[in-house]
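Students often ask why we bother encoding 3D structure as a string. The short answer is that it lets us treat folding as translation between two languages. Here is a chain of 142 residues written in the first language.
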Amino acid sequence: SLAPALVSFWLARKSREQEQGWCQRGKGSKLALKKWTESSQWSFENKWYLLEAEESFCNHDYDMAKSYYEKAIASAKTHKFVHEEALAYELGAHFYLEQGETDKSVEYFLLAHERYQQWVSIKVDSFHMCFNLLLIIELILC
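And here it is in the second language, the structure alphabet:
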């Protein structure tokens, strides 16, 4: 539900002719995520806030969008979802760029880049650990 909603809200902002249709699709996908958020705040809260930010941006409610981007970032950080923190920074950067807030946009793009690098590093470390474990098991069994 997250990806279809994000794509729908993005397309709503970029497509003048079909703005309302894409916005409605985004809202529908967002509602599906709401049930998941209610059942597991830990896993889905930041995603919900990010969709609220994107919908607010789509509806030209810029103050709410700012607030929800901040909430999405804080929630992802609190729950240790580095890649989703990066995504919230990235989408927030696009928001600030379109609002003409270049300094804030650059700050958010840099933070997004940093978080994405951190996430890749975590994944690479995890891969190395699994690979080394497999090598040890193979050595023991041979």
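Translate back mentally: The chain has a mean pLDDT of 88. Keep this in mind for the problem set.
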